[in-house]
Structures are given as C-alpha cells and as structure tokens.
Amino acid sequence: MWISTSCEFSFEISVPTPFILMLRARRGSQQWVAREEYEVLPSVPVIEFKDFYGNDCQRLIAPPGPFALYCSADVMTLEHVEEAPGTPFVEIQNLPSDVLTYLLPSRYCESDRFYLLASEITQGYLPGYDQVAAIEDWVRRNIRYEPGTSPSPVSAIEINLRQSGVCRDLSHLCIALCRALSIPARQVVGYLYDLQPMDLHAWFEAYVGDRWYIFDATQYGRKGAYVATGYGRDATDVAIYNQYGPPVFPIEQIISVEMVNR
Prior knowledge:
The chain is an alpha+beta fold.
C-alpha cells in the first residue's frame, strides 16, 4: 500500500542553534520511498550523514528568528504486519554481528532488571516469536496507552511502576523484556496510518528466525501502514531532532499520514 507522510515544525530561535535531525524515511526491505521533499526555511547549509544504526541524519545551524522544517514522502509499505508464530529463537553465537548491540541494557531499557518478569510472562511459550508476542500482549493488557502524557522519555522500570505511558514508553518496556530473554529488540520511530490521535509514533522490532519483525503494544490486530524513519536501542538513538544550546520547543507541529493511489 502507498502512504503519504509529512511533518512540519516551526520554531522561534533566539541564538544560532545546532540541530541534528532524523526526518527522512528509511530505505529498506519493508518500505520503498518513491518521492521525497525536504525544505528548511530560511535556507541554511545542511550536512547529511548516516549514524551508527544506518539512519539518515542531517545537521545544521538554525539562525535567530523564525525557523521551519518540512519533510514529506510517498512510501510503499506493508498493508499488514507479517506474522510468524513458531519462528525460533536464534542462539547468540548465530546472530549477525550488527544485531548483538540490541541484546544489551540501554539507558531506557534496563533489561538486566527484568529476567524474572519476562520469564513469568512467557512461561509455556515457544522460545522466539511466540515469546515476543506474549510480551506484546502482556504490555498491551497491563500498561495503559495514554498519548500525550510523557513529554520526556520514561525508562522501562519507570513505566512498569507507573502502569501507563505513551507509545515510546510501552516500547521501552517491551524491548527490555525481550532483551532479558536474550531476544534482540530495537525501537523504531516514524509514522502510522490512522493513528489516533495523529502524531509521530514509536513501536519495536524483535529479531527471531533470521529477520526483524514488527510489534506494537499500543495497537490491536496486525494492521500495517508503518513508515520508519529511525532505528536504535531506545529513545536516545531515535529522536526526530536533537537541539543544542538554550532549549527550543516547536511553536507548531503538524503531522499528516494519508493513504494514496499511485
């Protein structure tokens, strides 16, 4: 299916402010970017690079005054998330080298603190995909999804105590539980068609069998229409933008995700 995504951020800048952005849709096996538009107003020099996780990033210095970012794309993506019950756990010695980093505890995913809970949740399930699906279902049933309630990232330990949070927080807990069982898991940010309320979205992927699979504890069913812009260990690695110097917050943020025919 074809999805058209767009985001627009407007700022009022007081002093020259460095930004690192992650707005471009990823290229990969599960999505194809056919059209893309990227605009910075006023126009300033932009340097592009790929980070450690292969995300397309841009760095620039925003001048004082009104400053705006706009990015849009037409992306072909999966209509339904692929399911693979029974897909086996991959022993550590057989994992690709670039997947190993997603086994480790990270700032917001303290997986070394969740082995007992993860074992309890997945008792009786086959190692691998079925364990991840059990974790996703447990988090969906036990942690309330409350959009707009966590302006700053919350760790897996915090969200498990609080019992509610935004999409980013629920994915942190899922990731920590997966890694506690030595299943590689990573956070993904981007867009989701028909998300309510509409905003940028976060979900997670787990590596079982020989590939990554999409999971999302905030949604029901296996609908697709996800468009990824970034992958990383947790929210630290996948911020849509990082800004340095005096704090700057958007005075306007507009997100749009529509289905299109091509």
